[in-house]
Amino acid sequence: MLRLAIFLTILLSAGNAQSFTPPETVKVYWLSPRLETYLPVTKDTIEEASSKIIELRNWTVVHETLRLIMASTKKLDPMRVRVKIQTNNQTYYFDSTGRGLSSNGKAVYIDLRRLNHVFSE
Asked: CA 28 to CA 115: how far, in whole Å?
């Protein structure tokens, strides 16, 4: 009984410390990273140029998708944007190599193969 009480205390305190609550929906605009285009695809044109628009509503898929986004020091190639991930309060743009930029100006990275795998499941 004491072990159960200790376990529940740890579980509840851990949940309060760093709980992750994903946004209700995430929208992903996708243009294959391998695709070469005649005209540059930029942050302003990715929505028009995208070949897939995916709206994520499943909590698990939203969480798994957002977990793939990591801090980086490498900058986005603004003429080769291939992915836009839009949440309720943040937007991320990624180029054909996975280097990206968040709407708050921070450099980020995403593994595009793993992102594509999330959508394929």
From this structure: 10
Tokens for 31? 């243009």
Q: Which amino acid would we find at residue 11?
A: L
Distance (Å) of CA 107 to CA 3, 38, 102: 44, 26, 7
Strand ranges for 1-121 from DSSP E: 26-30, 52-56, 70-71, 81-86, 91-95, 99-102, 107-109
Instruction: Dump pLDDT digits (tens) for 12-31.
Output: 555 444 455 555 789 999 99
Q: For residue 55, count CB atoms less than 10 angstroms from its CB and return exposed for 0-12, middle for 13-18, buried for 19 or more.
A: exposed
Residue found under tokens 């070469």:
36
pTM for the model: 0.79
* pLDDT number for residue 16: 44
